[in-house]
Amino acid sequence: MKKFSNALAYYIALPLMYFFSVLPWAVVFIFSDLFFLLIYYVFGYRRRIVRMNLANSFPEKSQAELKFIECKFYRYFTDMLFEMMKLLTMSKKQKLERCKMDTETLAQFKGLHDRGRSAIVVIGHYGNWEYCPSGLPLQTEFQTYVIYHPLSNPYFDRLFSHLRTSTSCKLYTMAGTLKGMLENRNELNMTAFLSDQAPRRKGAYWAQFLNQETAVSTGSEKIAQKLQMAVLYGSLERVKRGKYIFRTQLICEDASKTKPGEITESHLRMLEKDIHKAPQYWLWTHRRWKLKKSDED
C-alpha cells in the first residue's frame, strides 16, 4: 500500500513540476506569489514552528519586526520551491548563470587545488542550497561531492539524486560519508556538508546558536581532521529572484591542526552572521531545536 501511495504521489506531482519548470521565470514567480498567499494566509504551513523559532532567535525584536521577517521568509520559501522545480529543465549553462562563484572564491578554490588540498565546505539551509550541486561543479577543478539524506519516497529520491548529479557532482549518503571519503582520500575533491541539521543525540556538540543552546553535528569537523582537509564556510547570497552568488571563507587549510570544536564554532558564527544580515533566507520551518540539552541531564 505504501509503495502504491508513493508512486501515486510521484506521478501526480511530476507533471506539475515539469509544467512549472518549462514556464518563463516571470510567470513562475507569479505562481510563487499565489502559492505564498495559500500556504501563509490560508493553510498557515508550520507557522507555529516558524514563529517560535523566530521569537527564540531574536528576543530583542518587537512583534512587528518578527512578523515582518516571518512574512518575508514565507515569500522566499515559495520562491525557493519554484526555483527547485526549474532545475528539472535547466541547461548546464543556465545552472551556471543561476549560481555563480564570486572571483575571490574561484581564486580560493584554485589555490587549494594547485596546492593539492582537498576541501570540505560547510553550508547551511540558507538560500537555495539545491543550487549548489548544480552550479558549483561547473566552476571548479575539484571533483564535487554532496552529502544527502535519502528521501522516504524512493521515486522522489531518485529524481532529486538525478538533479544533484546532472552536472559532474557525485553523492554520498549520510551513512556512507566516512567510508566514501576514506575511499576517495587520494582524489582532489570538494565535499559539501549541510552543517545546521539537528544531529542525533549521541555525540552531539552543544553550542550557542541564534540565542539558544543548540545540538550540532561535528561530523564535518572530525572527518576533516582525520583526512587533514581544508575547511571552508560556504554562503549563498541571493542577488535577485532565482539568482545567487556563492562565496566562501577559509576556516583552516589543515583541520588536523585545529582544536576540538574550533571548526564547528567558526562555521556556526559565520552562518549566524549571515542569518542576522538577512534572516528571511534561512529555513525557519525546520524543527532545529527539537533536541534539548536539559534532556541529557
Give a short summary of the structure.
The chain is an alpha/beta fold and 297 residues long.
Structural account:
With 297 residues, the protein is α/β, with parallel strands linked by helices. The protein folds into two domains: 2-86, no CATH class; 94-283, no CATH class. The protein is 47% helix and 19% strand. It has a seven-stranded mixed β-sheet with strand order 1-9-8-2-5-3-4. Strands 6-7 form a two-stranded antiparallel ribbon. β8 and β9 form a beta hairpin.
Main attributes?
single chain; 297 residues; alpha/beta; seven-stranded mixed beta sheet; two-stranded antiparallel ribbon; 11 helices; 19% strand
Note the overall shape. Answer: globular
Q: Tell me the radius of gyration.
A: 19 Å
Summed up, the domain count is 2
Main beta sheet: 7 strands, mixed
Question: How many strands in all?
Answer: 9
Task: Give the strand line-up of the largest sheet.
Answer: 1-9-8-2-5-3-4
Query: Given the structure, what is the number of helices?
Result: 11
Structural class: alpha/beta
Q: Share of helix among residues?
A: 40-55%
Instruction: Note the beta-strand portion.
Output: 15-25%
Distance between the termini: 42 Å
Mean pLDDT: 94
Which series of helices and strands comes N to C?
Answer: HHHHHEHEHEHEHEEEHEEH
Poorly predicted runs:
none
